[in-house]
User: Which sequence fits this backbone?
């Protein structure tokens, strides 16, 4: 089910928006104008990827520099090993909608449930 | 080095930098043999959690594993230290008598905790160190931490969260003044007091008493601190003794240029054991990033990415400290966001109108923005 999250104008190009659902979701607006949604919590340690460093289609965790591919969720650089989930995104009428993945989330050890 | 056809590479050191070197070799299309030699018996693992999540029990040993990619095709020779490098014969000698021939060598032997000459005093560098310390902390009681650097502070924080009575002793007047400067060092040191940990500064330790187990730590001013557990976090020394006689220049580490090149062809050094311009970078991020440059030097495939601004972090008492850049004594520091009293702020260091470094406390987003600007700024060669 697609759920409205925020106006696209709330996420400038090159920035991210943290959707405070459970578990939280990070929505990225790349420099190329694409929109991606992945789980916000780094699979290595409890850190918000929306606070991370967006470069192309990759986000670098703000703490330990694990990198995730926004398209696939794959962990491209350690210390993270497990992927983050990706979620389907649609922009309709200037509003970002997200359909949450039904896969189980890989949360880091010790992260808040 | 360009022009030498490298067919077999020995990586000496099987921790973060050694693993990163193996990955970089494959990423840079090296199809030959790779053998990685590690003095520890464990597969490569991540050290930063050892003073934090591993001590508190949030992480298990399995959570620390780094080497999950079996497709690297690396032969691991673990639990045996390298004892000698013979560059003329092109070989690495191991403690068990084996001689490993290779036509390229990556030295990534890292560093070890500066030892303390008293039985029963813990240091913390390896997984085995952390297991021993964790087991002692579980018994509770009084912990004295010698050294209020990042390791000491993190151990104090972890032990406090486990309910121990914790005292931290630092011989310098202000902890962390070296990396952070006195103003910000004092701000970070105040975290101890916030969480009920005593911090004693400006007083050196004279002795640790107790025979089969520690009993107390005694200070130069006569203070006696009874203790059930004592941990010393007083720095690290590079693992370079095995290179004596190799012809490599050793001066506070293996002397290299920015690209990891040593005075010997076909030998590069990277990670904590490498010294450039008299400085060893002991940061995790350096050990992840620099091996790619060293490997490019070894293979003669050209320089890697230009060096980024140094970065490190520390998690203590639920607060995230992040630092990037090159602070020098005399740099001015100012708060640009937040409030140190709230333990949430961003500070920038400046010299001659230029930003030299940035420090964040629980401000990951703005820290990242500033760090990015630092990275974008041209760095000295």
Assistant:
């Amino acid at each position: 089910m697609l759920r409205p999250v925020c106006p696209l104008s709330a996420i400038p190009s090159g920035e991210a928006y943290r959707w405070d659902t459970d578990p939280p979701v990070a929505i990225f607006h790349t420099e190329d104008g694409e929109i991606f949604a992945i789980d916000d919590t780094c699979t290595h340690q409890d850190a918000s990827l929306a606070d991370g460093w967006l470069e192309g289609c990759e986000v670098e965790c703000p703490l330990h520099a694990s990198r995730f591919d926004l398209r696939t969720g794959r962990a491209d650089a350690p210390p993270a090993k497990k992927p983050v989930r990706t979620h389907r995104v649609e922009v309709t009428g200037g509003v970002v909608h997200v359909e949450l993945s039904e896969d189980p989330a890989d949360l880091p050890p010790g992260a808040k449930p | 080095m360009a022009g030498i056809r490298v067919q077999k590479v020995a990586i000496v050191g099987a921790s973060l930098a050694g693993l990163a070197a193996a990955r970089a070799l494959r990423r840079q299309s090296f199809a030959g043999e790779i053998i990685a030699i590690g003095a520890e018996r464990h597969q490569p693992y991540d050290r930063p959690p050892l003073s934090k999540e591993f001590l508190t029990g949030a992480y298990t040993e399995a959570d620390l594993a780094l080497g999950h990619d079996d497709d690297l095709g690396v032969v691991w020779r673990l639990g045996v230290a390298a004892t000698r490098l013979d560059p003329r014969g092109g070989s690495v000698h191991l403690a068990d008598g084996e001689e490993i021939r290779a036509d390229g060598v990556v030295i990534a032997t890292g560093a070890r905790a500066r030892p303390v000459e008293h039985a029963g005093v813990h240091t913390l560098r390896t997984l085995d160190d952390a297991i021993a310390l964790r087991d002692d902390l579980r018994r509770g009681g009084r912990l004295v931490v010698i050294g209020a650097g990042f390791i000491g502070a993190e151990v104090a924080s972890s032990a406090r969260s486990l309910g121990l009575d914790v005292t931290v002793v630092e011989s310098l007047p202000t902890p962390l003044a070296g990396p952070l400067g006195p103003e910000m060092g004092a701000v970070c040191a105040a975290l101890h007091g916030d969480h009920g940990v005593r911090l004693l500064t400006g007083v050196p330790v004279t002795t640790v008493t107790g025979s089969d187990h520690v009993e107390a730590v005694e200070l130069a001013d006569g203070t006696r601190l009874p203790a059930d557990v004592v941990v010393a976090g007083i720095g690290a020394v590079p693992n370079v003794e095995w290179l004596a006689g190799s012809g490599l220049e050793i001066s506070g580490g293996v002397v290299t240029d920015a690209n990891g090149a040593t005075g010997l062809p076909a030998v590069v050094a990277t990670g904590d054991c490498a010294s450039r311009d008299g400085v060893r970078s002991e940061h995790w991020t350096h050990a992840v990033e620099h091996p790619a440059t060293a490997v490019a030097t070894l293979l003669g495939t050209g320089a890697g990415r230009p060096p980024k601004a140094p970065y490190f972090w520390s998690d203590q008492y639920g607060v995230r400290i992040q630092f990037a850049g090159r602070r020098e004594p005399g740099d001015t520091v100012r708060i640009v966001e937040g409030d140190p009293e709230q333990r949430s702020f961003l500070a920038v260091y400046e010299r001659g109108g230029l930003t030299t470094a940035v420090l964040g406390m629980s401000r990951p987003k703005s820290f990242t923005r500033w760090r990015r600007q630092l990275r974008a700024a041209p760095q000295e060669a």
